[in-house]
Amino acid sequence: MKPAPTLSTAFLHPAGHTLPEPLAALRRQQSSSLVDLPLPTRKTENWKYSSKYLKLTDEMAISLPADGKSGSSLAVPGYKVVVLNGIMMPEASDYPDLDGITIERFEDLDGDTATWLAERLDHALDSQSVQISRLNTARFEDGLLIRLKPGAVLDQPLFIIHETNADASGSAYPRIYVDAGANSQITLVEEYISSGTESAMVNTVTEMNLGEGANVTSIRLNMEGENVQHIGSTGVLQQRSSRFESHCVGFGGPLRRHDLQVRLEGEGADCKLNGVVVTQGKQHYDNHTTIEHVAAHCNSEETYRNIAADQSHAVFNGRIHIHQDAQKSNAEMNNKNLLLSNGAEIDTKPELEIYADDVKCAHGATIGQLDETSLFYLVSRGIGRREANVLLTMAFINELVEQIPVEAVRETAQGRLNHFFEQTFQEA
């Protein structure tokens, strides 16, 4: 029997950036645990449809340097932190100066804070289901700690601009930890962009801890180039009466993967997850979501929509787990998918796992094509067939795009989506 492929030892070489000792020790510990880590194959259930797209060459194990072009020129309607190849760029950033809110680089943390953080990293993610993202803990060279004291409110969105400069082949490992105190509030926007043409990998982890009554809105916009593999994980822990709202918009690439895991640990916690994915050519995008209803009287609402064109491939795997003590839970999941060509493929797997008997849960998934009757109606009224295709396809996802609460991000997403559809449809 052919042995399963394992992670190359080239990926386990120590990172070059200096960190406070508690974080450096965590990094070393994780690196040791990944020796002989089996790489996912088609037999790995949660990588069944994505393993063949994963390309981890030894060249890619080299950490990309934090020099060259940065996203400092990007104007945003709020505060901004620029992350270049996984390293924070303070000179290109615009931090908020507000009481009760601190933003610090991992590199600059004092010993006590670094110890506090090291004890909390990796607690919001299931290590068995995010195997490759565990590499982030072994390789992160810097990170961003965002702390909100009880009652603190960030008055404008905080944009984190992740740029991958792929002038040479390599990898980057951005890391973010958000600690939102009781009744605090923040809107966090993560934009992933890239420059350069060499093969690169971005392996990113964002973790959030929401205290009692905290309100966090997370917006994730993935717009990296065709040469960049992206493997991302977001883990969220919610305490009593907290609210988490997520809006993810993703454009396909050689490999795009996002694991979003939310754990409702306190009574009355509430989460809403929206996602839009579009793929074309031979692109691939895989969304895996998990919502754990641990406490009673919690609500979750999840809506994801995928559009695949040409010979591209989109995947959605959504799981809702209602624990035994999570009585009076309300959970709803909906996944709709649109195929724009006979060569495109979409795989969807909504899952409900229920161990409580007093709950209200529903889930559903559909896969279809554009409605020919609607197309005929628009064309018969003088609209060109290409424009009609664009209108109907945009309408399929616009309901979710319109819910993005930051106007600048909403307009960026709509512009990129319109460009995508104009490329996809050709005049007959």
Automatic annotation (TrEMBL):
Pfam families: SUFBD_core
Domain SUF system FeS cluster assembly SufBD core span(s) in chain numbering: 168-396
Top-level taxon of origin: Bacteria
Any single GO BP term: iron-sulfur cluster assembly
Natural source organism: Marinobacter guineae
Record protein name field: Fe-S cluster assembly protein SufD
